[in-house]
Amino acid sequence: MLENGEHFFEGVEKLLEIWFEESPNNDNDLRNISRSDWEKVLGNVNCEIISTSKNDTIDAFVLSESSMFVSKRRWILKTCGTTTPLKCLSLLLQLASENGFDVVADLFYSRKNFTRPEVQITPHQGFTEEVTYLDSIFPNGRSYCLGSMNLECWYLYTFSRSDVKSSSKQIVDEKDVDSEPDQTIEILMQDLDPETMSIFYKNKFASAKEATKESGIDTILPSMHIDDFLFDPCGYSMNGINDKGEYMTIHITPENQFSYVSFETNVALSNYRKLINQVINTFKPGKFIVTIFANKCSLAYETMKELEVEYSKGSHWKRTDMQCCNFPSYNLLFAQYSHNEKVCDNL
C-alpha cells in the first residue's frame, strides 16, 4: 500500500478481449446490450462510462479508467489503475448468452508487468492469481510470459475454442477458425518526454481537442473519428473509430515519476513500421514494447516477419528482446526497445 499520502497511479492496463462464435440468428448483436447493463458490468470493474461514440459497426466507450469497445460479436475492455476487469466476466457472459452468444470462440487477457503490483486488488495481485481466476471459468486456457520476468515482461492468457476442439479430436475447419481478418498492434511506452507530457495537463490546455491537435494524435490515423477526454488535473484518453469497424485508442498517464502511454489499434496494414515510427515520434518514450497479433486472414500475418528484422537498425533504438509465438489461429510478435546510447551520442 502507499505510505504518507504518496501519489501514484498505475498507467499499465489490463486488456481483455473476447470473441463469441457466430450466432445462427443474424439479428443477435452485443451492441443490443443496454447502457444500464454495461454500467452494471463496469460496476464490477470499478470504473464508469464518461463518453460514447458509435457508427454502424462498432460502439466505443471512453471510461474513467481507459476504454471499452463493442461490435457484433467482439468485446474489448482496457482498464488501468486498480480496476478489476476479471470480476465482470460472469455478468458479461450472462448478458452475452441472453443476446444469443453462448460460446466463447477466443479470449485474450494481457498486460505488462505493473509498476507497483502491491497496490492492486484481488484477483489482480499477481499473474498467477489472475490465471487461477481465469482457469476457473476457462479450464482449457493457456498462460504465457514474454520478456524478462525479473525486469520488463508482458503476460498473456489465451483461450481458444479451436484448442478445445483439437484436444477432443474434432476436425477444425480453418475457415471457422479464421472467419474474418483480425489483427491488433499495441505499443506500450514508458519514461516519456516531460515536455510532450506537459500537453496533457489541464493547466496547459483546457480542452481535450486542443491537446489532441497540439500533440499530433489526430494525424496518427487521420481516418478515425476521435472521442477524447482530458482529465483534471492531468491524464488523457481517446477512442477513434472508422466506418470499417476499426478502432484506435490512446491512454496517457503524464506524471514524470511514473509516465506511461499506451497505443492500440486493429487497423489492417501490410507494414506497421511507419505507424510505429509515428507513434514513437509523437510521444518520445525512453523505452517501449510492441506486440502484434494477426490471424491467417490478416494482411499483417506475413508482414509481421519483416519486424523480426532489426526494426531499430540505423536508428537510436536498441532492441533488447524479441519473441514470436504461433498459436492455432494467430501469430504473435513481442519486441522490446530502449534508447541506443551509442547512436544517440553520435546524433
Top keywords for this entry?
eight-stranded antiparallel sheet; 10 helices; 347 residues; alpha+beta; disordered C terminus
Mean pLDDT over the full residue set: 89
Give helix % range: 10-25%
Number of strands: 16
Distance between the termini: 43 Å
Low-confidence stretches: 167-178, 342-347
| Biggest sheet strand line-up | 2-3-4-5-1-6-8-7
Listing every helix as H and every strand as E from the N terminus to the C terminus, the arrangement reads EHEEEEHEHEEHHEHHEEEEHEHEEH
The backbone outline, from C-alpha atoms, is: globular
Gyration radius, to the nearest Å? 20 Å
Number of contiguous helices: 10
Strand content: 25-35%
Largest sheet: 8 strands, antiparallel
Q: Which structural category do the helix and sheet elements fall into?
A: alpha+beta
Structure description:
- It is built from ten helices and 16 strands.
- The chain is of the alpha+beta class and 347 residues long.
- The strands form two sheets. An eight-stranded antiparallel β-sheet has the order 2-3-4-5-1-6-8-7. An eight-stranded antiparallel β-sheet has the order 10-11-12-13-9-14-16-15.
